[in-house]
Specification:
With 470 residues, this protein is an alpha/beta fold. The chain is 48% helix and 9% strand. Strands 1, 2, 3, 4, 5, 6, 7, 8 and 9 form a 9-stranded parallel β-sheet that branches. The longest helix is centred in the first third of the chain and has 19 residues. Bound molecules: iron/sulfur cluster (2 copies).
Length: 470
């Protein structure tokens, strides 16, 4: 029986309720009065229920599709302006005891190189990332309690925060590790992580169990209830996502929103971020097994409706996607992207000779090229990490977003962190474009006092000072 506040996975993600929702959406996919009403209410930026979002996803009426895209763009602009937050993944270890069929790190893959970064390796990798200009990382590990225990992850986080190379610093470490205990989540919180990220892969229990035949990840309930334990452990910024292509996308789309509503209803805070990865070719993964892979048009539609359905939640896209696709979904709702990513263990300091990548990267440009491209498209690449460092997490963060006040800090922070990037890491061309964008954007800071402070800080940044924030 569906119960959004239940602590039991199969109750807050209820299979029958998802099927009922899909049936309702199918029945109403051409119900214009209902759809127009949903879109009208969505303009208030208060989000949508999973039933309403499912109707929009099912609808194929061309004029409605256009309206969905337009509204998504408006909501994106209202909450996130033209800012795009940058980050990079850092793979610490690819030892894994799970058997996920779609991932080359699965335990029985004998021909992938297994690696784990030592603390010295981490210093080299993070120095290389700092030298590119990154300030925000997402740590990734496989699951192996012996080779990669929580103590190793905690030590690695400490090492990362301690590295200061030239003007570089990693100011926010998000963590994507396997579902764990409340006690371990508490330790991660104490270590100063930003967001805890865990993808559900698919919400369809039967398919989930088939796709994860062995290892602790086989346990659907333990995995699905992980965010509840993370919140109990004090982590109030969590990031969810599914791997589109593993299962029927409509089912997972509803599951994803049900999960978001569960967190909001139970803890008063919805997910901080939602990631939208699509399955990619990888070593020892047979792509013929994934007939549910979704085409670009559907992918773009999913992003647009998520933007409308959960306006307060950041949407993340990785270098799995091509430059062309990234360009399209940035407009429709994505607010964070990775740049210059290595999906291998140890791929930043040196190019690796043995393949240890988790998936093939589609967008292989350098960070400077990505920043340059964003500037050219009229975006402000932002290296901001201010909220977490100012204690604006969980419901404090959500209140600020819901009141619309967040834009007043995001905009100045974006300009100041972009300025740092331009001073320390940018090519001549990127610097020129960036300075033009900064000058153009300053007048858009609505508060006169803030505008004046930003002008002063930009001057100080040019003179060599660093790390200003609101
Ligand atoms: Fe291991 Fe994660 Fe890959 Fe599964 S998806 S095999 S848990 S690294
Ligand atoms: Fe993100 Fe907060 Fe910075 Fe805005 S001010 S970009 S919400 S960290």
């Amino acid at each position: 029986m569906y119960n959004s506040k239940s602590k039991i996975a199969t109750e807050f993600i209820d299979h029958e309720e998802i099927l009922k929702t899909l049936e309702y959406a199918e029945k109403n996919k051409e119900n214009r009065p209902l759809i127009e009403d949903i879109l009208e209410r969505a303009k208030d930026c208060k989000g949508l229920s999973y039933q309403e979002a499912a109707v929009l996803l099912e609808c194929e009426l061309p004029d409605i599709m256009e309206k969905i895209a337009k509204l998504a763009q408006e909501i994106k602009l209202k909450f996130y302006g033209n800012r795009i937050v940058m980050f990079a993944p850092l793979y610490l270890s690819n030892y894994c005891i799970n058997g996920c069929r779609y991932c080359p790190y699965h335990g029985s893959n004998k021909h992938i190189a297994r690696k784990q970064l030592s603390q010295e390796d981490i210093v080299r990798e993070v120095t290389a990332l700092q030298d590119m200009g990154h300030k925000r990382l997402a740590l990734e590990t496989g699951e192996d309690p012996e080779k990669c225990p929580i103590e190793y992850v905690l030590e690695s986080i400490k090492t990362i925060y301690s590295i200061k190379h030239k003007n570089g610093a990693i100011r926010r470490v998000n963590v994507n590790i396997a579902a764990t205990t409340v006690e371990n989540y508490r330790k991660l919180k104490e270590a100063g992580i930003g967001t805890y990220i865990l993808f559900q892969e698919t919400y369809h229990k039967e398919n989930y169990e088939y796709l994860h035949p062995t290892g602790p990840k086989h346990n659907y309930s333990y995995h699905t209830e992980a965010m509840d334990r993370a919140m109990e452990g004090g982590i109030d910024d969590v990031g969810i996502g599914v791997l589109f292509g593993l299962n029927l996308y409509k089912y997972d789309f509803v599951g994803l929103l049900m999960h978001a509503h569960h967190l909001e209803d139970t803890f008063g805070v919805g997910p901080h971020t939602i990631s939208v990865p699509r399955i990619r070719p990888a070593d020892d993964v047979d792509m013929n097994d994934y007939s549910n892979a979704i085409p670009d048009e559907i992918f773009e539609k999913i992003v647009a409706i998520l933007r409308i359905a959960v306006p307060y939640t950041g949407l993340i896209i990785s270098t799995r996607e091509s430059q062309k696709t990234r360009e399209k979904v940035l407009k429709l709702g994505v607010s964070q992207i990775s740049g210059a990513s290595s999906t291998s263990v140890g791929g930043y300091a040196e190019r690796e000779e043995e393949n240890s990548a988790q998936f093939e990267v589609n967008d292989t440009r350098t960070l400077d090229e990505v920043v340059n491209w964003l500037l050219e498209l009229g975006y402000i690449p932002s290296f901001c990490t201010a909220c977490y460092r100012e204690g604006r997490t969980g419901d404090r963060f959500m209140q600020l977003v819901k009141s619309g006040q967040i834009a007043n800090v995001c905009q100045p922070n974006a300009l100041m962190t972009l300025k740092e990037y331009l001073e320390d890491y940018a090519s001549e061309d990127t610097r020129r474009k960036g300075e033009t964008v900064i000058q153009k954007e300053i007048p858009h800071i609505s508060n006169e006092k803030v505008r004046q402070i930003v002008r002063e800080h930009l001057e100080e940044l040019h003179e060599g000072k660093r790390d200003f924030r609101f």
